[in-house]
What we know:
Elements: H1 2-6, H2 17-37, E1 51-55, E2 60-63, E3 69-77, E4 100-107, H3 109-116, E5 129-134, E6 142-148, H4 157-177, E7 184-187, H5 193-207
Antiparallel strand pairs: 1-3, 1-5, 2-3, 2-7, 3-4, 5-6
Amino acid sequence: xxxxxxQLHFVGVFLEKQELIDKxxxxxxxxxxxxxxxxxxxxxxEPTKSLRISILSLKAASISDDPQRxxxxxxHYVNADPNSGKYAKQDDDSATHVEWTIRYxxxxxxxxxxxxxxxxEGQTPEDIDLIVTPALADGFGYNLSRISKQARWRLDxxxxxxxxxxxxxxxxxxVAKFASVPGVSMVDDFSKRQQLTxxxxxxxNEEK
Length: 208
């Protein structure tokens, strides 16, 4: 039995890391294609990079296709370290100036569940900064972790003012793009969407 056990292998049974790296771009590109379908610019996610983002307090678009997905506006920290997502101090110990842009992220229920547990009690996902990387361990969805318990862009009054102005403009345009689109509904709180979907499913099962 021991000798037979030594001959067992799992090649071809589980996805190897390289296979996951090869597979993940398909998920990324599917999300990017969906976002671009509505004339929006997706977050530039790549298998080998870590992106620092902050979710904006704007409406999100709930897509009822299979699989169900949420598209939401996020602030992308363009000049954060692509490996760690951190900001190093300048030589004179001053904080690095934040460079940012607004992009769009596509999330599935599993991603929303991961985000919901990241804020501290009394916080919302919009209060913190996140790191987005491919979930290579399972080949599906994203790894979403908290890098800061306070959104960095909010710390600089000038940048905060710029972001608020741009977000107000983006928010109006975002809602307009999905007006009257079949299978799309706008939600105020994306983080509760998974819970609502589950409740609706349970209600439907009870009616049957």
